[in-house]
Specification:
This protein has helices spanning 31-42, 57-71, 91-105, 123-135, 149-158, 177-186, 205-214, 218-228, 240-246, 256-263; strands at 8-10, 16-18, 22-23, 47-49, 79-84, 110-115, 139-145, 165-169, 189-193, 232-233. By secondary structure, the protein is α/β, with parallel strands linked by helices. It has a single domain, classed as NADP-dependent oxidoreductase domain (TIM Barrel). α5 links the parallel β7 and β8 (165-169). The active site is at residue 54. Residues 31-266 form the NADP-dependent oxidoreductase domain.
């Protein structure tokens, strides 16, 4: 039952991952980011998602340590994710990148480590490195990001360990139903980045009607739609009131008709790069 910020989904290796978290994409190092992550922890968030390419792991780490100290939340209660960037894909380089991220974050381990993009000819070696890190107990779960069905199929042909998570662009304009169905069948948890389409959906007339009907914001409607679709979601915000508002999605449920109405907004439209046509 997804009924609060600490509600979790169980990954295919038995690790529990919060359904809801905060993302920090494009938030620069510094006090604003530190405060945002501390606000999130204070208000009940337990999942924090960053990446090497965001160049903000040090501030995220500072915020995690400060947040734990101020709230009494233990490290075991938090779920911290980072990602290996394209330039570091390769066996040794991925392991080195993991250690660098860990050092910047000031942590002893990560809960989830992802391959950020499926760079052809490189992601299989990187996956082998993630398997090593996982077997050595240096990370609790491993997964991928931006992988399409054919990438997953190619990876799983040779992988010893199946990915536990696939983090992809996912919002009402890009519902990725086939990918979601494939991941469900394979026991791979789908996770949404850019769930609010980088703010582009926040003035959508159809979503506004739904929001008014439920007395919620458009953002809350979309995030609730994510959860009811069984998709982990990590909206980004640096403002305390927005961090609180985003997470206020556990006291209502969208009807089947409304869920289908939102699904129909799909246009297969991306705000981020296409994983199959991305100049790496």
């Amino acid at each position: 039952m997804i009924n609060n910020l600490q509600s979790t989904t169980t990954l295919n290796n038995g690790v529990k991952m919060p359904w809801f978290g905060i993302g920090v994409f494009k938030v620069e190092e510094g006090p604003e980011l530190v405060d945002a992550v501390k606000f999130a922890i204070k208000h009940g968030y337990r999942s924090i998602d960053t990446a090497a390419i965001y160049e903000n792991e040090e501030s995220v780490g500072q915020a995690i340590l400060a947040g734990m100290k101020e709230t009494g939340v233990s490290r075991q209660d938090l779920f911290i994710t980072s990602k290996v960037w394209n330039a570091d894909l390769g066996y040794e380089s991925t392991i080195a990148a993991y250690e660098t991220s860990l050092k910047k974050l000031g942590l002893d381990y990560l809960d989830l480590y992802l391959i950020h993009w499926p760079v052809e000819g490189k992601y299989k070696e990187a996956w082998r490195a993630l398997e090593t890190l996982y077997k050595e107990g240096k990370v609790k779960a491993i997964g991928v990001s931006n992988f399409q069905i054919h990438h997953l199929e190619q990876l799983m042909k040779e992988a010893e360990i199946k990915p536990m998570v696939n983090q992809v662009e996912y919002h009402p304009r890009l519902t990725q139903k086939k990918l979601q169905s494939f991941c469900q069948k394979q026991g791979i948890q789908l996770e949404a980045w850019s769930p609010l389409m980088q703010g582009q959906l926040l003035d959508n007339p159809e979503l506004l009607k739904i929001a008014n009907k439920y007395n919620k914001s458009i953002a809350q409607i979309i995030l609730r739609w994510d959860l009811q679709n069984g998709v982990v979601t990590i909206p980004k915000s640096t403002k305390e009131h927005r961090i609180v508002e985003n997470s206020d999605v556990f006291d209502f449920e969208l009807s089947k008709e409304v869920m289908e109405q939102i699904d129909r907004l799909n246009q297969d439209h991306r705000v981020g790069p296409d994983p199959d046509n991305f100049d790496f």
